[in-house]
Design goal:
The protein is an alpha/beta fold. Helix content is 42%, strand content 15%. The protein has helices spanning 5-12, 16-23, 31-44, 50-56, 73-88, 102-113, 129-135, 160-173, 189-204, 221-232, 246-258, 292-306, and strands at residues 62-67, 92-97, 119-122, 140-144, 155-157, 179-184, 214-217, 240-243, 268-270, 287-289, 318-320, 324-326. The strands form three sheets. It has a six-stranded parallel β-sheet, with helices on both faces. Helix 1 (5-12) crosses helix 2 (16-23), helix 1 (5-12) crosses helix 3 and helix 8 (160-173) packs parallel to helix 9.
Length: 336
């Protein structure tokens, strides 16, 4: 039979309460009691049931991270930032992929609802703002890298509109006046805000806003190629294209090569995210860097600080982390 805390107390000739205080590293126990308990544990081979103890305290020291896809290196870099800080604070991370499917996400969220984890970080979600606001009154939750309009809970992101505007202005600064846009449909908050940034940069430069230069589809890799083909088959094609993600930009670059268009001389293409593949491509991909490790560390640090606080005292709202424009070989000055 397994050794219990009562057996340890009997062997140490102490009360169960005293043994419990020793196991919980309480300050109000004598060194003599600590020594007796440790000796009894060693003699009996006792293994504390930390999970059961934590569940009774509603603490597991585990945080759930749900991402839309496990195939995107961008999410992996954020999770690395989350893990690094969390482990320093004594927390473990469980990662799950929802495959952008609401049914799977709801099933994974049961780990939060039944207190198997202390909190959850959503790297994109199918939940609506009203639901998130209600859930956040009862559970510790945070959004990271993809916000939800109207959601009043901890959200850590870059300023997508400002970042996109800066990227397009960088292209304009190189002499480009005919700039295309490849984005996802407007149900994605980040794509909608990046589209606003694109339009803002075009308007502020006094350039013509052309609806035929804006190609909307999905975040799927294949859409980058489809968007590139549509834009370059126009009677008056753009000389530069801004894509709302690096995957779309990389797909567009491959398609341009198939069409006999040389990216980095005949056409400039810029992405968004700065995934690892950007530096492995030929040409290397100009992009907007989201500081993944900073995103991850910031969101988990603030989430942990919310643990144990009443709902009214938890930190909420949007936290902005800085972006950076990185110019590489996929972009060139017009006429150079």
């Amino acid at each position: 039979m397994s050794v219990t805390i009562k057996d340890v107390a009997k062997e140490a000739e102490l009360s169960v309460a005293t043994v419990s205080r020793v196991l919980n590293h309480s300050a109000n126990v004598s060194e003599e009691a600590v020594g007796k308990v440790n000796s009894a544990i060693a003699k009996l081979g006792y293994s504390p049931n930390f999970l059961g103890r934590n569940l009774r305290k509603r603490e597991t020291n585990v945080i759930l991270v749900i991402m839309p896809s496990s195939e995107h290196t961008f999410y992996m870099k954020i999770i690395a930032g989350i893990q690094k800080y969390a482990q320093q604070q004594g927390y473990d991370i469980i990662c799950a992929s929802s495959n952008s499917t609401s049914e799977i996400e709801v099933r994974q969220m049961n780990m939060l609802f039944n207190r198997t984890v202390d909190g959850v970080i959503l790297l994109g979600t199918s939940y609506r703002a009203e639901t998130l606001n209600e859930l956040s009154q009862h559970y510790d939750m945070a959004l990271c890298c993809e916000g939800v309009e109207g959601a009043n809970l901890l959200t850590v992101v870059v300023d997508d509109e400002r970042a996109a505007c800066d990227a397009v202005k960088a292209l304009i600064g190189l002499g480009h006046t005919k700039i295309g846009f490849i984005g996802a449909n407007d149900t994605a908050v980040s794509s909608r805000r990046r589209r606003k940034g694109y339009l803002r940069a075009i308007a502020e430069a006094g350039l013509e806003i052309r609806s035929d230069y804006m190609n909307l589809g999905t975040f799927e890799y294949e859409h980058g190629a489809a968007g590139l083909e549509a834009l370059m088959n126009l009677a008056d094609p753009p000389t530069a294209i801004f894509c709302v993600s690096d995957l779309l930009a990389i797909s567009a670059i491959h398609k341009a090569h198939e069409m006999g268009i040389t990216v980095g001389s005949e056409l400039s293409i810029m992405g968004f995210d700065n995934i690892t593949m950007c530096e492995m491509m030929l040409p290397t991909v100009s992009t907007v860097e989201q500081p993944c490790s900073v995103l991850g560390e910031t969101v988990v640090k603030k989430l942990i600080s919310n643990f144990g606080k009443p709902a009214a005292e938890k930190e909420k709202g949007i936290v902005i982390v800085p972006h950076r424009i990185i110019m590489r070989d996929s972009v060139i000055a017009l006429g150079q």
